[in-house]
Amino acid sequence: MGPTHPLDDKKLLGSVRYVLRRNGIPAMYLADTVREIVVLTLDYLVGKEAPADPKEWTALACRIARNHAISELRKRKTREKYGDVGLTDQEDSIEPLPKDECRDPLDQRRLIGVLEEQFREGEMAADGEVILDSVAAGDSHEEIASELGITRAAVKKRLARMRETFAERVEKEGMSHLKREKG
C-alpha cells in the first residue's frame, strides 16, 4: 500500500465533518459536503505551496470548511427570506405582473409631464391637484369632499373629467399605448 494524500487522513476528515456540523450543515448533506471541502482545498492550493505537516493540512481544510458552511448558511437564509426554496415538485405559478409594475419609468415620466402641462395650461378641474394627490394617497371621495368643502358627487365628477381630459391629451400626443388598461 502506497502513501495516501493528506486530505484522505481520517482525523482530518473527522475534523472537517465536526466543523461542518458545528456550523449548521445538515447531517444528510455531510458526506457530500466533506468531499466538496476536499476539492475546495485542492482548488485553493493551486499555485500555492502545500502545507508542510498534517496539522497544517487539517487547519487549512477546517478553515475552508468553516467559510463554506457560513457561506451556505447565508445563502439558505437569503433563500428563506425571499421565498426561494429551490427545486420542488410543485409547478411554478406564472402570473402577469400587476399593471403598475409593467410600466417603464421613462413612460411614467412622459405621462406625468403631460399631466403637469395640463395643470399649467389650466385644462384640469378646479382643485384637481388636491383631488389627484388625495386619490393617490388612498383617501375616499367622502374624505376629499369634506377637505375641499364640496359634495362627494362633485369630487367624482371632477375626477372623471380629469381622467377623460388626460386620456384625450395622451391620445392626441400619440402616447395612447402608454395608458393603463381598465379592468
Please give the share of residues in helix. Answer: 55-70%
Second-tier CATH architecture of the largest domain: Orthogonal Bundle
Whole-number count of domains = 2
Largest sheet, strands/sense/barrel:
none
Report the span from N to C terminus: 77 Å
Cα-atom radius of gyration: 32 Å
CATH fold node name of the largest domain: Arc Repressor Mutant, subunit A
Question: How many DSSP-defined strands?
Answer: 0
Fraction in beta strands: under 5%
Helix/strand-derived category reads mainly alpha
Say what oligomer this is: single chain
| Net shape | rod-shaped
CATH class of the largest domain: Mainly Alpha
Q: Report low-confidence residues grouped into runs of 5 or more.
A: none
Number of helices: 8
Roughly what is the average pLDDT, rounded to an integer?
Answer: 83
| Strand and helix order | HHHHHHHH
Question: Helix and strand layout, with pairings?
Answer:
Elements lengths: L9 H13 L7 H16 L8 H29 L16 H4 L2 H16 L7 H9 L4 H8 L3 H21 L11
Helix pairs in contact: 1-2, 1-3, 2-3, 7-8
Describe the model.
- With 183 residues, the protein is mostly helical.
- The chain has two domains: 77 residues; 80 residues, Arc Repressor Mutant, subunit A (Orthogonal Bundle), CATH 1.10.10.
- The protein is rod-shaped, with a radius of gyration of 32 Å.
- The model has no long low-confidence stretch (mean pLDDT 83).
- The chain is 63% helix and 0% strand.
